[in-house]
Amino acid sequence: MIIYSIVTLISFTFFSCEDDFLDKRESDILTSEQVFTDPVLFQKFHNDIYTYLHYWPGDWACQSFGGLGRIAYSSFEGASDLAEASRSVAGTNASFNLGNWSQLAFGAKVELIWPWEGAYAGIRRCNVVLEKVDSVPGLSTDDIDGFKSEALFLRAFFHFELIKRYGGVPYVTKSLTEKDNLNFVREPYDTCVAKIVNDLDASIKHLPMASAQNNSDFGRPTIGAAMALKAKTLLYAASPLNTEPYAISSGSGGSDLFFIEEPNTEAETTQKWIDAAQAAYELIEYAEVNSQYQLLDSAHYLDIFHGDAKNSEVIYSRVDGSFSFSGAKAFTGWISFADVGASKGYGGSAGTYPTQNLIDMYEMADGSIPILGYNGDGSPIINSSTTYNDQQMWENRDPRLKLTALCNQDMWQDRPVEIWFDKSNPTISGSEMKDAQDYTTTGYLCRKMWPEELRQGSTASVYMNWIWFRYADVILWYAEAMNHAFGPDGDGLGNGVTARMSLNKIRNRLNPSNPHYRDVSASTKEEFLERLLNERAIEFVYEEQRWWDIIRYKRGVETFGVPIYGVRIYRTSKNPLSFEITRRKLETRVFKDYMHKYAIPYSEIEKSSDLKQNPGW
Q: Does residue 55 surpass a pLDDT of 70?
């Protein structure tokens, strides 16, 4: 019997990168007797589970570094208001961003199809490991406990990725065969949450601390990773999408009042926020007591993403697209996924570029808010009490702006970035605007995910981290949950740490000389929440957080279904060099209320009469 020919919940289609051992899934061509009687082959079978993590599996066309291939070779951030795909893939992305999800070509549906198919493929392997590991010869008790703990963590991880997209799903805890009843019923969302938490609590018992993990095991879960996934699961469970009813427009017209399950009472929702805050604080306390995690300082901020893969802020990550347990891997020279930031002028080929919508979200350096809103024509309502000027919009801003975006005339790889057209002769342009296809449409390049060492012709090596959980996230989870439960300054858990204190810790980390320079001024729960969501947007841009933050607050229509802006920069004088900046609308996106939950793939609905589709689809 071939291991992977067994009928499972779904049909599987695999794409693999030829140079990646794990993505080849060698164990797929081995028999049960070979795999489960040989500890080495069993290890390989177990390791294969990790190839399903997050990029379901391997992402489209092998662009498998995190989300950098989710929608036609571009970052999933391009689906949010924070980024826009380059012109070469803009057609497919525009279709996605205009709400035409069902009309996308197959290769563009990675984010819409693979999460279901890939997650259940990974879940099946987890269940096989849990069922078979006790009978594999030559394994010690510690080995068996380790395999089980990893499988439980991964099973929880896959189910979390499913419920955040689809709501309640079948929670599968056994490997399925053609003899099983495959006519599944979706379990309530809160039931799935409870099962995820149970799996994680069980996994923690035998997972290692991060500091005790060998380089050869980097990428396997730790105690901190399991605690982080638990806290995030509980935070999402407390969020409005999963506690409140909301009306949606059905695909055939009309409106239905759609309850994910029964809506929570105010007291029930508050308790969920308390549970989320407690879970986040337990991880914070664990990190402090055991010296496991801490925020990197201002001088090393970008090292989080492309520095030492085992830096102290990262709780759980995967290093590059060809994941290996042989130690943290490094990229050498120019690599395709650096296209997320690079234009043709720097040797890149496409990219996903920061929008003006994102740039406007950055506060001034002192924490004041420069843009208060927008007029009907899209022009900004400028806060006159700040020094903000649209022609000098990048000056005196939150330092993370220039750590995220490359702006016109910034020095990069030994030359100024040239994102301009000549005012008197628009056929003359800067280096980043010369290519007919792959220039930046927004007027910015991405710096955050583009190590400066990686350039054409270079032999330099650099680590690239795709991060699922980092310590800054945990601190902001705690701030968010505490604010909902007790307000900005309430200490309902009695641990001496309020929501405001936690948010300020993130806001001020890049101002070491003045630790209170950018303290948040919000006074009410509502004001504090708006500043916290803004903080999350700029702290985690390009980390696949924004889409889900907006979705779980049911704000997709007003946040994603909006005009997206960039800038057009004109060179007005060559000597002395001067420029004129003009805002311009790139597109008006479409987001329908029923899109807060993905459609379950139609092929799966056809297979199971009891598997109900999400409303509106």
A: no
Beta bridge partners of 381: 373
C-alpha torsion 476→478→480→484, nearest 10 = -170
pLDDT (0 to 100) of residue 415: 96
Closest C-alpha among 158, 99, 85 to residue 439: 85
The CA distance from 394 to 50, in Å, is 41
pLDDT single digits (tens) 374-410: 999 999 999 999 999 999 999 999 999 999 999 999 9
- Determine the Cα–Cα distance for residues 78 and 96; give it in Å rounded to an integer: 10
**Per-residue b or e along 408-426, where b marks 16 or more CB atoms closer than 10 Å to that residue's CB:** bbeebeeeebbbbbeeeee
Whether the bond into 576 is cis, omega within 30 of 0: yes
Which residues partner with 84 through β-bridges? 353
The answer to whether the beta carbons of residues 313 and 402 sit under 8 Å apart is no
All residues at 6 or more sequence positions from 289 whose CB lies less than 8 Å from its CB, including other chains: none
Strands 314-319 and 577-588: unpaired
Pairing of strands 563-574, 421-422: parallel
Which residues, 6+ apart, have CB-to-CB distance to 235 below 8 Å?
A: 276, 280, 477, 480, 481
Name the one residue in this structure whose structure tokens are 């006074």: 523
Residues whose CB is less than 8 angstroms from the CB of residue 6 and which lie 6 or more positions away in sequence, other chains included: 175, 176, 177, 178
- Cα separation of 342 and 438, whole Å? 9
- Residue 166, C-beta contacts closer than 8 angstroms, at least 6 positions apart: 116, 597, 598, 600, 614
In angstroms, the CA 449 to CA 341 distance is 7
Q: Could you read off the pLDDT of 141-173 as tens digits, one per residue?
A: 999 999 999 999 999 999 999 999 999 999 999
Q: What is the mean pLDDT of residues 306-323?
A: 73
Q: Which amino acid is at 547?
A: W
Residues in the chain: 617
Q: Measured in whole angstroms, how far is the alpha carbon of residue 496 from the centre of its chain?
A: 30
Q: How confident is the model at residue 99 (pLDDT cuts 50, 70, 90)?
A: confident
Ranges of H-type helices in 188-322: 189-204, 223-238, 266-290, 303-306
Q: Which residue has the tokens 């996230």?
A: 473
CA within 13 Å, CB half, 395? 8
The pair of three-digit structure tokens given for residue 508, joined into one six-digit string: 């001020």
Residue 607's SS3 state is: helix
Q: What number of other Cβ atoms are within 10 A of residue 461's Cβ?
A: 13
Closest CA to 268 of 480, 474, 530, 485: 485
